Amino acid sequence: MKPSIGLTFARGLRHIVRQDPDVILVGEIRDRETAEIAVHAALTGHMVFSTLHTNDAAGAITRLLEMGVEDFLMASAVLGILAQRLVRLICPECKAPVPATAIQEEIRRDRNGLPAWKPEHLFEGKGCPACAHTGYQGRTGIYELLLVDEAIRQLILQHAEAAVIRQAAMDRGMQTMAEDGWSKVAQGLTTTSEVLRVTQE
């Protein structure tokens, strides 16, 4: 990009669309012009992938609306939104079972009907030379995927708040990032404190 000669992010994207690609990857949607070009490209038969900085999947919808994207265009163009965070993995060299704390017991009880997991299956890293005595080694992602169906489209057209859209998606089976985190805790991959830190719940 070189704005001094008129080569802006939005202009570059406009030229790419004219080459008739099948798939377009927009590194980040950061302004109204880029958002509108990406949405219009999606409406004309291109598969468009991009990123936005939001707290969760539902927040991407309100962020695009705040940027000035027309609600009816977004309702037609957006197929799905994937939110992700990275959590540290327990070090396999010093991984050891630990008793559940009161917070972990509370999480175990409030998992919204997800498969039960026993607190005695929780693990932590004790710290060793392999992990520089941190108890963690490597990372993995926790995700939530919001699929835009007819009910979500209606909420977009109504300019519903992110919390309302999030709840509607959860009612339709969306697994939140925190719930994905708890499933990874149950598998012994990470710790509850790590999931709480990353999801801020």
Descriptive report:
The chain is an alpha+beta fold and about 200 residues long. It is built from nine helices and six strands. It has helices at about 10-20, 30-45, 55-65, 70-75, 100-110, 150-155, 160-170, 175-185, 190-200; strands spanning about 25, 45-50, 80-90, 95, 125, 135-145. Strands 1-2 form a two-stranded parallel ribbon. Helix 2 links the parallel strand 1 and strand 2. Helix 4 runs antiparallel to helix 6 (about 150-155). The longest helix is centred in the first third of the chain and has 12 residues, at about 30-45. The chain is globular. The two termini are about 40 Å apart. About 30% of the residues are buried.
- Gyration radius (Cα, Å) is 21 Å
Proportion of residues in extended strands: 15-25%
Write down the overall mean pLDDT: 87
Number of helices: 9
Question: How do the helices and strands follow one another from N- to C-terminus?
Answer: HEHEHHEEHEEHHHH
Largest sheet, in brief, is: 2 strands, parallel
Unreliable stretches, pLDDT < 50, 5 or more residues?
none
Q: Would you report the number of β strands?
A: 6
Helix content: 40-55%
Q: Span from first to last CA?
A: 38 Å
Strand order of the largest sheet: 1-2
Assembly context of the chains: single chain
Apparent shape: globular
- Structural category: alpha+beta
